[in-house]
Every structure is written in structure tokens, then in C-alpha cells.
Amino acid sequence: MPRRPKPLTPEAPLAPVPSEIVDQVVRQGPLSVEEREAAVRRFKNAIIERALGGELTHHLGYPPGGAKPDETTNHRNGTSGKTVLTDDGSLALAVPRDRAGTFEPRHSSPFRSMSAA
């Protein structure tokens, strides 16, 4: 039987979502089940892509648009598409790349499902 991957971090209590963000999603009246699921998938996509960008920033040692340290020759090189499986089904991500091809994201490993995401 295959082993289940261990979670990257222990579950922490969630902070409340600012009402301004909720107001952008729920504009008029209640959402249908399909609209609610689509909103959750968009949030999940945005959160994962933001985390991947943060991982690349940590890997390279400087933020997007920031001054590149003199000792590094590696830099950002766009994104590539990747489809991952989540509890909600497949999710298309734009995974950032680096020029040297040394960036290996932890959040979307090709060998594990994003079920815990």
C-alpha cells in the first residue's frame, strides 16, 4: 500500500477573510453551488501560485523587480503550465521558472497530490 505524504506544516487556525474580499466574490445575493465552488478554486489557485512565487523568491534571494545580488547569475524566466490534482479536481497552475532550471517547488511536487492544499 502506498504511503501518504506527511503534511508540510501542522494545521493552524485560519485568520478571518477581510470583508472587502468577500464582497468582491459575493456581489449580489446568494451564490449557487457552482459559483461557490468556482470561487473556492480561484482562491486556491491564487494562494498556491502566490506560494510558488514566494518559494522562487526565496530560492533566488531577491524579490520580483528587485535588485539582483551581484553574486547570482540566476534569475526569473517566466512560468510554465502544470495541472495538479486537488480535493476539488484538477487545477491548472502557472509555475514560475528560473533561468538555470534549478528551482524545485515544494508546493506542487510532481510526485504528490495537492489534496492537503
Description:
With 117 residues, this protein is of the alpha+beta class. 30% of the residues lie in helices and 18% in strands. The protein contains 2 helices and 2 strands, in the order H-H-E-E. It has helices at residues 19-25, 33-60, and strands at residues 76-86, 89-98. The chain has a two-stranded antiparallel sheet with strand order 1-2. A hairpin with a 2-residue loop joins strand 1 and strand 2 (89-98). The longest helix has 28 residues, at 33-60. The chain is globular and about 55 Å long.
Give a short summary of the structure.
The protein has helices at 19-25, 33-60; strands at 76-86, 89-98. It has 117 residues and is α+β, with helices and mostly antiparallel strands. The protein starts with 18 loop residues before the first helix and ends in a 19-residue tail after the last strand.
Low-pLDDT segments = none
User: How do the SSEs run, as a string of H and E?
Assistant: HHEE
What is Rg? 17 Å
User: What percent of residues are in strands?
Assistant: 15-25%
How does the helix and strand content classify structurally? alpha+beta
Largest sheet: 2 strands, antiparallel
Helix content: 25-40%
Keywords for this entry:
117 residues; alpha+beta; 18% strand
Task: Please describe the topology of this protein.
Blueprint: H1 19-25, H2 33-60, E1 76-86, E2 89-98
Antiparallel strand pairs: 1-2
